[in-house]
Hints:
The structure holds 2 protein chains of 2 kinds.
Chain A: E1 11-16, H1 20-32, E2 35-40, H2 43-53, E3 57-60, H3 69-79, E4 87-91, H4 96-104, E5 109-112, H5 117-159, E6 170-174, E7 182-188, E8 194-201, H6 212-224, H7 229-243, E9 250-258, E10 263-269, E11 274-277, E12 283-287, E13 307-310, E14 316-320, H8 322-325, H9 336-349, H10 353-365, E15 374-380, H11 386-402, E16 416-423, H12 426-429, H13 432-444, H14 450-469, H15 480-495, E17 501-510, E18 515-523, H16 530-538, H17 549-557, E19 560-564, E20 569-575
Helix pairs in contact in A: 2-3, 6-7, 9-10, 13-14, 14-17
Chain B: E1 3-8, E2 13-18, E3 20-22, H1 27-34, E4 43-47, E5 51-54, H2 56-71, E6 75-79, H3 83-91, E7 99-101
Parallel strand pairs in B: 2-4, 3-5, 4-6, 6-7
Antiparallel strand pairs in B: 1-2
Helix pairs in contact in B: 1-2
Amino acid sequence: MPNVSTIQETRVALVVDDSKMQCRVLQKYLEEESYRVIIANDGSEAVNMYIQHKPDLVLMDINMPVMNGYEATLKIKSLSSDALCPLIFITSDDTEKAFIESVKVGGDGILVRPFSPEVFKAKIQSIQRIIDLYGNVKSLQQEQQKDAELAEQLMSGVIEARNFALDKIGIVKKPAALFSGDIQLTALCPNGNLNVMLGDFTGHGLRSSIGAIPLASTFRAMTQKGFSLIDIITQINKQLYDLLPSDLFLGAVFVTVSEHDKSVYIFNGGLPDAYILSTEGEIKHKIPSSHPPMGVMPSLLPDTGLTVLSVDPTDRIELISDGIVEARNIDGEMFEFDRFERSLIKGIKAKNVSKTVLKDVMDFCEDMPQEDDISLIDIPCSNWDTTKNVEETATTVNVDEKILPEKDLTESLSAWDWQLKLAGSRLGKINPIPMALNQITEIEGQSEHWQNLFTILTELFINSLDHGVLGLSSDLKSTAEGFVLYFNERESRLSQLKDGFVDIKLSFHPLPSGGRIKIIVKDSGSGFDVELYREKLKTRDARNQLSGRGIYLLEQLCETLVYKNNGTLVEVTYAW
Amino acid sequence: MAIKVNLSKENNQLIIRIEERFDFSLHQAFRDAYINVKTNNTEFVLDLSSTSYMDSSALGMILLLKDHAEVLSGTVTIRKPSDTVNKILEIAQFHRLLKIEY
C-alpha cells in the first residue's frame, strides 16, 4: 500500500512577508527542516505563487502593501478546497482581534513574534504531523475508492456481461458513489424458460461483492442443467449461509418465466414487492417478501414455496431493490412506493419502463448524492427467445429427413445404458433430468442436441409423474387459471406421496455421423386409453392448447414415439 | 449518544435503545453495547420505538446480536418498532427469526 508520508519528495513552503529580512530568516529555518522555500512580498503575489507552485505550507504576514494577509488567505483557501495546505500567520500583532480574524479567514494557526528558532521549528513539525496524517487518510480513501470500483467492475463487466437476452429485458443499474452490492442475473433454461434474479447484498464496496461470483456461477450452472427454481434457491441460500459472515446476506427476488405455460414462478426473499402489470398499465399482482434474505438461515423455512401466477404474453414483470423507493430528495423525503407505482404505470404506457422510472427518480432527487444502488429489471412475459425457436424447428426437420429409423432398435448394440428408478417420497424431492443430462454430457461431451433431449426427457418424466403416478387430469390445464389450480394440486399430492415409481432408462447407439438415444419411461400409474387420446388430439389444434402441447412437442422432436402397456410405458428415440 | 443501554441484573435483561438512525455508523457502538454481557440466559431487548430509519446493515448487526445471544442460550426481542422500521423488518421477514413485540 503506498503511503504518502514515505514518498521522498522535497516539500515546498511559501513565505509571504513584505520585509525581505524576515523572509530570509524564515527561509533559513525552513531549509534546516528540509523545505524548499519560495517567497512573495505581498498578498497578491502570494496568490499567484500559490496557483503556480501549489506549496505544501504557507507562512503569512498580516500587514502588507497591495493585498493584506487576511485577503490573500481567503483567496488561497478558496483555491485549495480539495488539498490540505496548512497556513500559519506570522505576526507581531498579539491582539485578540488578530488571533480571531486569522482563524476566521481560514488560517490554521498563528505564531506571534518574537519567537526562538526552536519554537518556530516545533510549530512546523507539529503542522507536518497533521499533513502526514491527512496524506494517510487520503491514500486510504483512494484505496477504498479503487476497491469499490473493482467491485463494480466485477459485477457489471465480468458477471452481468454474461446475462441472457439483454436486448429484450430492460435492466437499469445505477451504482451509488460507493458501490452498494446490487446484482442482476438472467439465464435461459434448457426448456426455453427464462430465469431472472435481482439481488441486493448488504454492505458497501468490495465487501458487498464477495458473494457475487459463487452466486452467479450457481445460478447459471443450475439453470443450464435444468434444475427447478426452488432447487436453485435452496442451493444459493445454503451456499451463502456457509460462505458469508452473519451480517452479510442477500435480499433477492427469483423469477422463472414460462412462455409455454403462460406462467410465472416467483420467490421474494427480502426485497420490496415485485410487480406484474398488464400492457394497459394495470397492476395485476404484487408479490411481497415471504422469506428472510438468502444466507441468513442454514436452510429454507419448511413452508417455503414459489408463488405461481398465470400471465398474458403481453404482461410485464418488474423487480426493484430498495434503492429506488428509498432515494431521497433535498428535503429528505423518500421516493416511496406511491411515486414508484405511478412512474411504473406511466412507463408501461410509454413502452419504456426503465427509462421512464430512472428519469422520474433522478428528477425527484435533483442533485442529491445517491446513497444506494438503483436497480430495476423489466421483464416481458414472452418473445425473449423468438429467433431461437425458429432455428430449433428447422434443425429438427433436417434430422427427420436425413435419418431413416432402423426397424428393430433392440437388436442393435447400445454403447452404454443408464437407468434410474425413483420411488415414493423421493419422486417429489429429486429431479432426475439433470442427472440424466449430466450422464449424457459426461460420456458424449457437449452438443446442441442435448437441449432437445432435455425437453423430451422433461416432458416424458412430467407426464409419467403427473398423469401416471399422481393421477392428475390434464383437463385442468385447459385454461390459464386452471394451470395454477393444477400446480397447487400437484404440490399437495406430491408432498403426500408414499408409493409409486417412475423408471427412466437411456441407451445410446452411435451412428456414423451422430447418434441415437432410446428413452424408456415406465410409471406405476393405471395408464390411459392411448387410442382415444390420439383421436382426441387430432380433433383440435393442439398447438394452441395449454394441455396436449407436451405430446405435440414430443412428436415433433422425436424420431419415434410409442406407448405400450396400456400407456404406462413410453418408448421414444431421438437421432441426430 | 444515539444508543442507550440499560442492564438490569435482577431481570437478567439488557435493553438497547436506538434513537433516530440505525445504520452502519452505529456498528461499533452497537457491538460495544452487548459484547461484554456474558451471563447465560440473558434476554437482549432491542428497543426500536424511537428509531426513525434502519438500513440493511442494521439488519446484519441484529443478526450478529442474535449470534451472541445464542451462544449464551439467551434470546433477542425487538420491541415496538416504528412503522418505517417495521416495514424494513417485514421485508426481511425478521419475525420468522426473532420475537417482535408491537
